[in-house]
Amino acid sequence: MNQWDKFFKEKMIKIFQEKKDVLDIGGGLRTDENKANRYDEKNAWLYEHIKKANYKILDKVADYKPDIVGDVHNLPLPDASLDAVICIAVLEHVEEPQKAMKEIYRVLRPGGFCFIYVPFLYYYHPMKGYYKDFYRFTYDGAEYLTRDFKTVEIENVRGALATVMNLLPMFSKRIGFFNLLDKVLNKQNSRQTSGYNIFCVK
User: Fold this and answer.
1) How deeply is 169 buried, as exposed, middle or buried, from its count of CB atoms within 10 A (0-12, 13-18, 19+)?
2) How far apart are CA 18 and CA 112, in angstroms?
3) Does pLDDT of 139 surpass 90?
4) Structure pTM?
5) Within 10 A of 185 (CB to CB), how many other CB atoms are there?
6) Least buried of 30, 83, 143, 169, by fewest C-beta within 10 Å?
7) DSSP-derived secondary structure letter, 46
8) Confidence of residue 39 (pLDDT cuts 50, 70, 90)
């Protein structure tokens, strides 16, 4: 297992073992095909953990049957009402990501967990009629975005070579060799990466 998938798995298990009230903004875990815009079978292992928590999905429209319809810029939740927030591949699609992060911080209880993914060197991917694609985040940008949290861990998603190959349609689904090459050449921790998995504690 590569280091970013290991990081993701460890943090998801930690969230669902240690926290009860968990909000998934945008339904990025994609474990329930009835409550998200697509299902990802590689995350099916999470279901056993999720069912132990009070897990809710929030989306800005009702189209995919989320538990809560709301805008991440103005979450319809009281202060300090959640134990954990998951926000995967959302912040590049919102007009004001810093305002969104302030809202996430607001609704978390002290000691609450936040897991986010933001892209850096990644292809343009709006969804017509649903969301636009506004931003990319450098390592420095990710640090600044999460500056209010007590602790922050940032993990690359892909090394430098695999990142380049992921941008090329002919290689994007076959980059395992380049992941290995990044490991051999010590390029997995390059700042030239597809994006960042980030785990924060309030």
Assistant:
1) exposed
2) 10
3) yes
4) 0.93
5) 12
6) 169
7) G
8) low
Residue 105 in domain = yes
Provide the CATH number for the domain around residue 35.
3.40.50.150
Q: Is residue 102 part of a domain?
A: yes
CB 118 within 8 A of CB 92: yes
41-64 pLDDT per residue, tens: 788 888 888 988 999 999 999 988
Task: Specify whether the CB–CB gap between 40 and 30 falls below 8 A.
Answer: yes
Per-residue pLDDT tens over the stretch 84-108:
999 999 999 999 999 999 999 999 9
Q: Which amino acid is at 193?
A: T
Position 163 in a domain: no
Note down the domain range covering 86: 3-158+193-201
DSSP classification of residue 186: T
Domain count, the chain: 1
Tens digits of residue pLDDT in 149-193? 999 999 999 999 999 998 987 776 677 888 888 888 888 899 999
3-state secondary structure of 54: strand
- Which contacts (CB < 8 Å, 24+ apart) does range 14-19 have? 14/113, 15/53, 15/84, 15/86, 15/113, 15/115, 16/46, 16/49, 16/50, 16/52, 16/53, 16/55, 17/49, 17/52, 18/113, 19/53, 19/83, 19/84, 19/112, 19/113
